[in-house]
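Problem 12. The chain below contains 280 residues. Write out its predicted structure in token notation.
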Amino acid sequence: MSNNSIPYEIMDTILAELNIGLTLVDNTGKIIYFNQLASELLGWDYNLPENNILSCHKKESKDKVIAKLNRFTKKEWHRVIKAQDRFIENVYSPVNIPEKFVGAMIITKDVTEREQTLERLKKISETDPLTGLYNRNLFNDIIQSYIAESKPYGIVMLDISGLKYINDHFGHEDGDRIITEAANAIRNSVRDIDCVFRFGGDEFLILTSSEISVLEMIENRVKSKNSIPTSDNPAVLNLSLGYATSMEGKSMEAVLSLADQRMYKDKETFYLGEGKFFKQ
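Solution.
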């Protein structure tokens, strides 16, 4: 060993201090070298006669992996994977030493803290803090993808009846309780594939199927969770709703408007009947 070379044990110590995993893989997928952290994060086993990167990939993707390992380019690529409760980032750097070695060097880091922070920020940006439902901003993003793909959809608009009266007479704490109850009632009335949004103060929106049978099912489930308010006990949950489908409007705005009109018609019926004391 020349004076300029670094013993493996020193190299391993440096990488451990930097919390970096290092793997060297040749163009067949065979792992030539890995340090202790790479073993811990990626599962390489010192006791095996041979470790191979292809063991981490599905059968249908193995040819693509080999192609990348044989690509003569200086372009790096990276991938973040989730292993149990950890997020692992791998940065692949192609290595091409003519007549000696062709493959890639993989730099591995535990980026769990970073990814969890990003997940929290993403959740904050997409959800309503009081109810935990998706917010209006996310609805705008999702509906645009529906429109781009010409995917049919149904929209259910919902509104809490008597919330202003409850806020004025019992305070916003009771109002917030009713809003939370409404969110839970709606969440429990839809299918797993449906999306529920808090659209405004006491307004909610469900993005669902365009099938009338599904819309009717959601309506019946929501209505079954309503309570009849009385002058003695007005602070109970009662939701008005209306729905429309993408086949009924030329634009998303038109579908929203139609669902909204039907919801307000339902609300007017409520205020003329069971909820008439709210208007007295």
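Discussion. The radius of gyration is 29 Å. Students who got a different answer should revisit the alignment rule from Section 12.3.
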